[in-house]
Amino acid sequence: FIEKRCFKNAKRIIANSNMIKRQIIDTYEIDPKKIDVVYNGVEPKKLDYDVSFRKLSQEFDINNKAKILLFVGSGYKRKGVKEFLHIISKLKMDNIQAFVIGKEKNIKYYHQLAKKLKVDSKIVFTGAREDADDFYNISDIFVFPTHYEPFSNVVLEAMSFNNAVFTTKQNGAHEILQDDYVMQSPTDYSIVKKIELLLESPEALTLIKDQNRLKSQHFSIKKNMQKTLEIINGVMND
Fold it and tell me: Which strand (E) or helix (H) includes residue 114?
């Protein structure tokens, strides 16, 4: 009731993805013309790969020839860690190191699932980390099979650190990815073959990583603020 009243009375509404815009329209019967889409922004950072790798390899004994897959997010059930583990288990490659970063109350369940799927030797659950940027920096592929996200910043963060990125259609951030990297659902395991093809083709992997890094530069916090202020000023000047 409160949400509907706020949406009905608002002069303008800012949504952070077209997915959310459609949900507002469908749920509250809001005039589409009232809603502007302003994607989230990310602050570009530059870290030295060798420094990040040396630091993390000392802690986790990372093979310098291993391909690294990454998940970042707290609240594992909604954000798809179960599905991430299943994806890792289906990859027909041995030289893989996967990291799961983030907080989770029921962490024992995921440790047990990793053992059941026989991927416990490939996956490290790090818990919450203040140095997540170092993990992004050394990672090759970021996989985020979330069940629902309006627009997850981790997708932009991973892109800005030169990662190939896969996420679900249930994440508003999928709108900035190429279709081949969008999962139709958290259990869309067709991406396993796509991940394998990337890992087997250094040229293809490098290409999408570079494309993502360049694309992320179009989604800066500065641009997000500029667009938001333009909308606010437009309302105030009406």
Answer: helix 107-116
